[in-house]
Amino acid sequence: MERNDIEALVERLRAGDVRALARAITLVENGAAGEAPGLLSLCFPHTGKALRMGITGAPGAGKSTLVDRLAGRWRAEGRTVGVIAVDPSSPFTGGALLGDRIRFRDRQEDAGFYARSMATRGTLGGLAQATADVALLIEASGKDALLIETVGVGQDEIEIARLADITLVVLAPGMGDDVQSLKAGVMEIADIYVVNKADRDGADRVEQEIRAMQSLAQTHGEWIPPVVRTVGTTGEGVDNLAAAIAKMHAWLTGQGRLTARRALQWARRLDAMLRTELMRRARQHGVAEDELARHAAKIAAGQEDPWSVARELAGKIVEKK
Ligand SMILES: Nc1nc2c(ncn2[C@@H]2O[C@H](COP(=O)(O)OP(=O)(O)OP(=O)(O)O)[C@@H](O)[C@H]2O)c(=O)[nH]1
Ligand SMILES: [Mg+2]
């Protein structure tokens, strides 16, 4: 794509053209090294104001139901909303993909709402980076709030949650070893705990487990993640959830905390972006994909020393002036 075409695409995207947005997302998702960086840098100046929410938690806990509730609520208040459902476990024909489509169908005609599923692992730079890039495009298309849903707490999910200003961790009773099964990673990312399916027995116990875990950790400094109970299917408790989000948002924007949090996130992302860029250049300068494997075999056989190999390969990356 020519630079002019990319500029035109960004213009259309910014003007609310849904097809332009979809096209831009496809370019970025495919890791089109030629187009993606230029496209993203053109969009970047039009981002930064939206609230970025991460929603994660156990499979089937009610994340999508709550995303839909929050989206509906914010739309009713006149805020525009973008949703990303990351569904790494079922890349092609995932049930959740279909479920999300069905659930969001009512809003398909709503220009202030955009939903997208992502199901690509192995994208250049990883799923977290691809998700962040897609979020940036959606934000640039003029959304006031982004809701990014991920399942579980694998490393990818934690990385994705780290892109958010505020992360909800959704739990529900009757899901086995609920809190324990989510492991330590969750404590690090949770800003607000949601005990959904509070209409079922066991919500008390889930809440107690969360509080017990909290008493053992102090990862959040001054902010103590509240526990909010909801019934996603009826909307009960969603008022409280929205209030908790608003409260945390106000806390974040006070005293520059949001900017500090984002700066930490950018430090991590820059690191990842630099790696991606260096690997891209390495490939460009003749470090073939299988070359690393060949060297590795020789190193294992004691025929090469890894430090020399690393230095030699890095030497190839230097831009030829
Ligand atoms: N009883 C009850 N059922 C609920 C509640 N919230 C959601 N559900 C139901 O639980 C099921 C799973 O809800 P989803 O919103 O798809 O859950 P999810 O966490 O997005 O699921 P995955 O994306 O597949 O991990 C659906 O059948 C919902 O209707 C609730 O508060 N109470
Ligand atoms: Mg879901």
Give me the number of helical elements.
13
Q: Which ligands, by name, code or SMILES, are bound?
A: guanosine-5'-triphosphate, magnesium ion
Quick check: average pLDDT? 85
* Helix-strand pattern: HHHEHEHEHEHEHEHEHHHH
Within the largest sheet, what's the order of strands? Answer: 3-2-4-1-5-6-7
CATH architecture of the largest domain: 3-Layer(aba) Sandwich
Radius of gyration: 21 Å
Helices and strands in order, then pairings?
Elements: H1 3-14, H2 18-29, H3 36-43, E1 51-57, H4 63-76, E2 81-86, H5 95-104, E3 113-118, H6 127-140, E4 145-150, H7 155-161, E5 166-171, H8 178-189, E6 192-195, H9 203-216, E7 227-229, H10 238-253, H11 257-284, H12 289-300, H13 306-317
Parallel strand pairs: 1-4, 1-5, 2-3, 2-4, 5-6, 6-7
Helix pairs in contact: 1-2, 1-3, 2-6, 6-7, 8-9, 11-13
This protein binds guanosine-5'-triphosphate and magnesium ion.
Guanosine-5'-triphosphate (GTP) binds next to helix 4 and helix 5.
